[in-house]
Structure formats: C-alpha cells, structure tokens
Amino acid sequence: MAMARASSGLAYPERFYAAASYAGFDGSPNSSAKELTSKFSNDSALLLYALYQQATVGPCNVPKPSSWSPVEQSKWKSWQGLGNMATTEAMRLFVKILEVCCHFYSESNLYGSHHNLSTLLSPPPPPPSFPQSNRRKIQHDSKTEAVKENGNSFPETKTISTENGNLMETQDKDVVSEGLGSVVVYDQWIAPPISGQRPKARYEHGAAVVQDKMYIYGGNHNGRYLSDMHILDLRSWAWSKIQAKAVAESTESPSPALLTPCAGHSLVSRGGQSVTLVGTSLVIFGGEDAKRSLLNDLHILDLETMTWDEIDAVGVPPSPRSDHAAAVHAERYLLIFGGGSHAACFNDLHVLDLQTMEWSRPTQQGEIPTPRAGHAGVTIGENWFLVGGGDNKSGVSETVVLNMSTLVWSVVTSVQGRVPLASEGLSLVVSSYSGEDVIVAFGGYNGRYNNEVHVLKPSHKSTLSSKMIETPVPDSVSAVQNNTNPTRDLESELEVGQEGKIREIVVDNVDSEPLISKHPETTEHLIATLKAEKEELESSLSKEKLQSIQLKQDLTEAESQNTDLYKELQSVRGQLAAEQSRCFKLEVDVAELRQKLQTMETLQKELELLQRQKAASEQAALNAKRQSSGGMWGWLAGAPPTQNAYDA
Questions:
Q1: Which superkingdom (predicted)?
Q2: What pTM, to 2 d.p., does this model score?
Q3: Three-state SS string across 436-457, please?
Q4: Running DSSP on this structure, what letter comes out for residue 322?
C-alpha cells in the first residue's frame, strides 16, 4: 500500500467528507448504494463502503447478516476485513481509492465528475510569483545568491543535507558550470540550483537518463494522469520542455499522434507492478488490476520477438502486492522487496532465479528496513539503493542500501520532516561524472505533490575481494573464480544446504589488471588462498555427498522396517478383529444363558408353589378322612348326631 497522504488543499477530515459527498455518501449507511454501484465496479464500491463505515462508525461490531441477503453479507465482510484500522487511515485510503477509481472511469460519462473531484480536492492556487532574482526558493530548502568572482557572476548555493538526522549546510559555488561535478560530499542529499520552467509537481512518473540528461514523462497530479515530457540537463541544471509525439504507423493517417497519458508502468492491464529489464526481456511482477485485486503473477516480454510469456515458477512466491521495488542482479536473480496490500505494508525480500524459475526467501541481515510501499530503487554494481515510500502512517526518511551479494542492509543517510525524499512515487535514476556514480531523485507525493530535484553521491563500493582475503568463506559456499570480466563478474553461487540454506551470490568488483601489475605477490597470495578454499570446499562437498548417500541408505532401511511393521500391524489388527468377533459371540451366549436362568428360577418358584398346594390338599384329605371315621364309631356308641356334628 502506498504511503498515506496528508492534506492537499483541504485538510482532513474535511477532505474526506468532501470526497464522501462526491461519491454519494450523505451519512446514512444505505444512502449511496445505488449511486456507488452506478459509478464504480462492485469491488470498488464495497471497498469504499467499508472504508466509509470504518472512518465514520469504527471497527465492525454489528452481527453478520442473514444468508438470504448476499449484498448485505458482502458489505459486512468488506467492513469486517478492515479489522482495527485507524479512522484517519481509513479516511486517507478512501480519498486515494476514489482518486484512482475516478481515473479508471474517466473515459465514460464520468469525466466531468472526475474533473469536479480534482477541483474539489485540489490545493489552493499558489501565491503570486516574483522575479527570480528577488524570490527565495523556500520550497526547495535552498538559497541562491549571486557571487562575483574574477568579474564573472556565479550562483552561490547553500544546499541542505543530513547526517545522523541533523541538518547540515554545505556551500558550492560552481554548480551551474560543473553540473554533477559540483557534488563533492558523499552519502548526503543536496538540492542543486535549478533553472528553467519546472515541470508540474507529480508522482508515479517515468524517468530515464540519456547522455547527461534526465527525461521525465507522465505522472499523476490530483488524480489526473499527465502526458508532458521534460528534460533536465544534468550539466547545467536547467529544465526544458519538449513536445513529444508518436510517429504514426499507418499511411492513411501520416500525421503524428500525441502520446497517451500514463502513470507508472502499463504494459499489461494493471498498475503498481514492477517492470525490470533483464537482457532483452522485460520481467513484470505483481500489481493490481482495474478492480483493485492484488496480483502476484509473473510475465516476461521478449523485446526481440515482442511475445508475452506467463511464467509458472516453482517455490513459494511473494504474497500479492503492489507498489513494491524490483532489481536484477548478475543478469540472473530478480529481487523483490516491500510493497503493500490494501491494509498493510511489507518488508520481506524474495529472490527469483531466472534460470531455474524458482522462488526463494533469503534471510536478510544488517539494518533491515521498515515495511514500506511506493518506494523507488536503483542499482549501482552490487548495491541496491532504496529511497522514499511509506507505511500507511508516515513517509520513510531513511535512504537504505542492500548489498545484493551478501544480503546485508545498511542506512546511507536520513532526512527529517515532510520533505520530498520521504515521498511515495518519486523517481530515481543514476548518472555518472568522472567515473563516479550520482543518484538523482525527482518528484513524489508526501501530502503534497513535489517537483524538486535532489542528488546524492554514494560512497558504497564493493569490498568483497578484501573480505575474501581476510575472512574465510563459509563451508556452504562453493566459490569458483571467474576473471573474464575485470569490472563486475559473477564470482560464485552458494548452494542450498540440507536445512534449506539460502542461495547467495558473490560478485568480484576488483580491477584485476592494475592489481596484477602493481601487487603481483598479493595476486599470487589471493590465487593461492582461493585454491586452498576451493580444495576445502570440494572436500566439504565430498563429505556432504557421502553423508547424503548414507542418509539415503538409512532412509531405505527405515522404509523397509516401516513396511514390515506395517504388515505386522495389519496382522495384529486382523487378530484383534477375530477376537472381537469371538467376544461378541460369547456376550450373546451369556445373554441367552442369563435369560434361561431367569426362566428356570420362575419355574422353580411355580414348582414350589404347586408342591405347597399339593401338601395342603393331602392334609385336607387326611383330615376329612379322620372326621368321617369318628362319626361312625360315635353312632355305634349311641351318641347324639347333633353333638357329633358340633364336635366335627
């Protein structure tokens, strides 16, 4: 994500409410639904709605809508996805996205509305201009006064630079006559005296250096894309404007056509991607499409055949992002750093091997930069310089450099305050003077659009050869000397170890011919040292191969044992299943026996009852028999019948 913008004209939150009113928000949650969907795509409308809710209401705490309302569910998910984003940041993102969306729809009937938005949010008109001789260039933090020397008039310029965060002033009198040669201090940004008509302030423009001249084309100002071209002469520091036109290819319309307005790179239908020249090919990575969907795909354009190829690289690619920086090292390795999504910025480093098309994420060392997006980068030898960018809260003040051979970061210098160098979308180019490289920065956006020029002469040189003599190379490095190119040669490539060790590249930046002529003993010692290190590395490689073979054998044995154990496990599982079946049958038999036992107990009780009844019957019969025999004898004895009956 690009750096959050401060006020440009209207201040926040008035700037936000003006933009919200333009988009159709009047304060109620559903008031602008129809107008949003008619002006913008569904994705853009959902994002604008979520940012508006986040800025006016706060984080989403409402319950999830029911499934029968897909529109409300989409709005709820979009708002919920912003998490705990700050209110001020939601306002700034709302305004920025609205500016971008207005450009995407500028070719439709919304062009007039886009113009109104730019007018609504544009800064107030500048103060009246004064003659050049009487005006102080406060906006460039420099003062120019005429100084006479030997009868000639030269401007004496006080340039402001920084060292350890403190502002310093250095004087240089012959800047106009010497151009880049006037830059005598190292690792400090200075603002040279500029003459001529300056370009309109802008960011996301294109810049290139051709024969001591810096060409500036296009860019973005207040949401409008520019199509003008300007040239800065790096010898006289003078701006000039040219009318660039494209030659018509058709014979039917021989008149030249004006160049199409653009900002950033637009080789494919996207924005915020990186485009890197590697040999005769352009490598395009990431960005976001017209629907603001982030991308992490990889495309290569062959400039000789003008054919596109979509690359399906192996390994873990960087997460989808835009506004990142990219550089190529040794014509083989593509480095991707930083960038951002819609809610966060990154400071991760990814490397793509363009020969094997494999992504890797190496370990960074040194003073690792903070997360940022919208920064600019340029390479000088094995050093990759990064300037500007932001982290959704403020601009980045440090100028950092990465040694692409050792992957070690360091801080070159830093600035203070809201200065153009702490901007997003600035351009960075390299020129040279008397064999020394000079970095030139132009434009950017840090709450206001800038058109200032700053230059820096870096002191970072390749110190790899001296380190190779003093410090032994790690065992994981396979160094193979290559002196075919005495200026910048690929020295060696680090192999990936068993524990996922990263690849590293070692580059030779030593002028070998003067070294041989002046210090033959040092050269012989260097060669002997390299040979000894090569033998040690070959020995280590042999040991690693033997260890790898042993590990493969151990792995085979372990796999065999694993197979036997698996078979035994299957056998035990079968036996266990049989035992479980037997147990089940026994449980069934036990249940049947219990049921039979209960039946027998019932029969036993019935038998006992019958036996008691039988005994009672027999006793009753016996008693009856006795009574009948006693009555007969009584009658014979002359007893009265009634008395006998009573006795009975």
A1: Eukaryota
A2: 0.49
A3: EEEEEEECCECCCEECCEEEEC
A4: B
Token match 């006998």: residue?
A: 644
Asked if 248 contacts 262 with a C-beta cutoff of 8 angstroms, the reply is no
Cβ neighbours of 594 (radius 10 Å) = 10
Distance CA 158, CA 164 (A): 19
Collapsed DSSP state (helix, strand, coil) of residue 562: helix
Nearest to 363 by CA among 323, 325, 329, 409: 409
What confidence tens digit (pLDDT) does each residue in 555-568 have?
999 999 999 999 99
Nearest C-alpha neighbor of 421 from the set 400, 395, 402: 395
Q: What pLDDT was estimated at residue 333?
A: 96
Distance of CA 198 to the CA centre of its chain: 35
Query: CA 606, CA 613: separation in Å to the nearest integer?
Result: 11
| Integer angstrom CA distances of residue 488 from 406, 423, 462, 483, 527 | 15, 32, 10, 9, 18
Residue 18's Cβ-count burial label (10 Å; 0-12, 13-18, 19+) is middle
Contact 286, 274 (CB under 8 A): yes
Q: What is the DSSP-derived secondary structure letter of residue 58?
A: -
